[in-house]
Amino acid sequence: MATSARRERGTSPRRERGTSQSLKALLGIRELVFSGEVGPGVRLSEVTLSGRLGISRTPIRAALAQLDQEGVVEAIPSGGYTVRSFTQVDVADAIELRGALEGVAARIAAERGVPAARLQTMHSLLAELDHVVADPKRTDFAVYIARNGEFHDLLHTLSGSETIRRELERVMRLPFAAPNAFITAQAEMPEIRVSLLVAQAQHRAIVNAIEMREGARAEAIAREHARLARTNLDVMIEDTKLINKVPGLSLISG
Amino acid sequence: MATSARRERGTSPRRERGTSQSLKALLGIRELVFSGEVGPGVRLSEVTLSGRLGISRTPIRAALAQLDQEGVVEAIPSGGYTVRSFTQVDVADAIELRGALEGVAARIAAERGVPAARLQTMHSLLAELDHVVADPKRTDFAVYIARNGEFHDLLHTLSGSETIRRELERVMRLPFAAPNAFITAQAEMPEIRVSLLVAQAQHRAIVNAIEMREGARAEAIAREHARLARTNLDVMIEDTKLINKVPGLSLISG
DNA sequence: TTCCCTTAAGTTGTATACAGCGAGTATACG
DNA sequence: CGTATACTCGCTGTATACAACTTAAGGGAA
């Protein structure tokens, strides 16, 4: 009786190109958590999720294990998982961590050198970001978010170390650690323009430092760059109106 | 027919205190990989592992997913996993990463301050390590490894940031990133004594820096401390006789 | 002989059955 | 009326069944 995720045994539609049940479960549960539909501390029952998402327990269970690794969900000693709750300090630490890792990536890139082609791509991205930031009141945030994301992704690969890239990818999944985490909400804030201009200046400085093989400088700027996000976080926490604007902000309690 | 992990349905002995099948699978597969019993690039079939470890596919599958996260095993796009192979550079990067994270932990600990009780524990560990290192030719490596591990574990918590501690715990699971990774082999090397003395001096310096609230210094020393491991790695790679002495060294190819 | 296509075996992804453990509840006793 | 105890329901951990997919092998044609 339990499960209602019933589906005729041999008639399963089968995954339609990359839409595996596991992935659906992962995205579904993430969405459930970040949308605030299930609050912090709430237990995530496998059977309930199974019924709600129309997926059997097996992929649900895999997704929960993954989300546990990502830090979105917390394992209960006696079994099962609850939605994790984050303090403001947790988020600050995650940002600090991202900064530290991006710093290491930037430094190693500078020290070991980067192929010219890669640097060329970086410069292209810088130019595009310049263009987006240039014209006040007409800034397209969707484009900014996309380019900014690409810039950081590329930065993460510049060290040439797959290990470091992997770890950065992990840290970016921590709630609000990603560079773009707050930008959607920032769009409504007056301070946004200054923030973007400063960020872009730092982007340029990081690339320049890497080009000049100035490892220490590259690292220092990358770290400071991440701290921008922290400043934004503080501003945002103050402005309680934004709680519903930023997905997942409801996870922060304390 | 396939599976031979057969076991009477209702007669399962049930886990004997914490020995869940999942844990057994995790440890079993790790052992298989690190012992070199299955070489890099080899595909890990779930049913084969199931039969070999006497565990059903479900916990095996969970363990493989976990090991994928840990970086021990690599997911094949079309499904399944292979044993990952590491280059010497990969290991160096992992050590660098550990150093960077321990550095951040030490700096934050220094900046935010640490409860006196914690510092007291650190000093106790320092004293014990002193004692172990003091007498040449009679050094008990098992004790050193234990205390050294405790020292680093404690250091990881000193920042007070659970996020950072978690991430450090992850990175430590990367092959050879852990502080104790090479010590067993070092026991047979002549340079070991100097290495341990230097390491211990750094331990003291890190604690001192944290006490003095000298964040930058704490970070710098912690990073350099990690680099000791890298030096040891280089020495060890040269000495091919050690390949069978160090568990998992067979994973390094290139 | 070589290349392609068909086919078969093996492997993974997913669903589900089942048993034990735990949390919460109701009942009985002080 | 409060507390302790027994019980029941639900939950997770694990095993297994089944179908699609992947891959490797074998046979046929150029």
Structure description:
The structure is a homodimer of 254-residue chains. Chain A has 254 residues and is mostly helical. Chain A has two domains: 2-84, Orthogonal Bundle (Arc Repressor Mutant, subunit A), CATH 1.10.10; 87-253, Four Helix Bundle (Hemerythrin (Met), subunit A) (Up-down Bundle). Chain A is built from ten helices and three strands. The first copy, chain A, has helices spanning 21-34, 46-53, 57-70, 88-112, 116-134, 141-158, 162-172, 183-186, 192-211, 215-238, and strands at 43-44, 73-75, 81-83. Chain A has a three-stranded antiparallel beta sheet. In chain A, helix 1 crosses helix 3 (57-70), helix 4 packs parallel to helix 9 and helix 5 packs antiparallel against helix 6. The two termini of chain A are 41 Å apart. Mean pLDDT of chain A is 87; it is low at 1-18. Chains A and B meet through helix 3, helix 4 and helix 7 of A and helix 3, helix 4 and helix 7 of B. Chain B binds a DNA duplex (30 and 30 nucleotides) through residues 2-3, 5-7, 9-10, 12, 14-15, 20-22, 43, 45-47, 55-59, 61, 78-80. Chains A, B: Residues 1-18 have a biased composition (Basic and acidic residues). Chains A, B: Keywords: DNA-binding, Transcription, Transcription regulation. Chains A, B: Residues 1-20 are annotated as: Disordered.
